[in-house]
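User: I'm preparing a small set of examples for a lab meeting where we compare how different chains pack in three dimensions. I only have the primary sequence for this one, and I'd like the structure in token form so I can line it up with the others. Please keep the answer compact; I'll paste it straight into my notes.
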Amino acid sequence: MSSTHTLAPVPTPVPEEVGRLYDRLTALDTAKTGGSLHLGYWDPEDDEVPLVEAADRLTDMMTDRLGIDENHRVLDVGCGVGQPAMRIARRTGAHVTGISISHDQIGRATELAEAAGLGGRVEFRHADAMRLPFEDDSFDAAIAIESVFHMPDREQVFSEIRRVLRPGGRLVLTDFFERAPIPADKRPAVDRLLRDFIMTLAQPEDYVPMLRRAGLRFVELLDITERSVRQTFEQMSRTTHGEEEMQTAFDEEADEKFSPAAMLGVDEFGSVLLTAQKPA
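Assistant: Understood. Below is the structure token output for the 280-residue chain.
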């Protein structure tokens, strides 16, 4: 996709490889992040709030933008092991369907939901977001927390989400993007992150055209970098055991592997919160 900028030599994501990566990550101990691997969101002056709490805050910020209640059905695109989906169901009463390309994530998410007594309000299915296995107009809202950067064509995913949304339904997502040109001395750290997690970086100016071509209406584009990225990498870098454990999920033959500490000071690497809507 021409609107996605990939830092060489990072290849275009392949869904099956992403699935295998998250199969391996699912086996790790993620208790310190509440079972979620996404970034947190910190208010001013509260950088020491634990990542697990800050990650829930970001989930809540996104959920509030969906405008949902117990009468709505929500699609969680890239659901992980189901923690955000369960949180959304508890907070709003909505029915949430989570999808992942990872078989192991779906199995673990299903187990956790049943153990939490939420089996009737959340469900999880193995699926590729590039080809959603749902009928048109199946959902009232969709959420994608740090998942679209794993997909080979963001615009195709947006088109599929638009198809399965009912008229007036909202999509809220977070994505990584290049806030400014990344200096040569910082590119190796970014390349390792993109390579090890099988991701690409978006350009913020491409989002509105992508949404328009996909049939969605732009609502909001919010740069959350200053409240999210640095704090997350700082807290991750303090957990040496967790970092070493995570690296076991990556290519054992690689000379260097992703390290959260290497991303500290890469201010050009950003995170954006996007809201869009299917026209009524």
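A couple of notes for your slides: The first strand starts at residue 4 and ends at 5. Residues 4-277 form a domain with the Rossmann fold fold (CATH 3.40.50.150).

User: Perfect, thanks.
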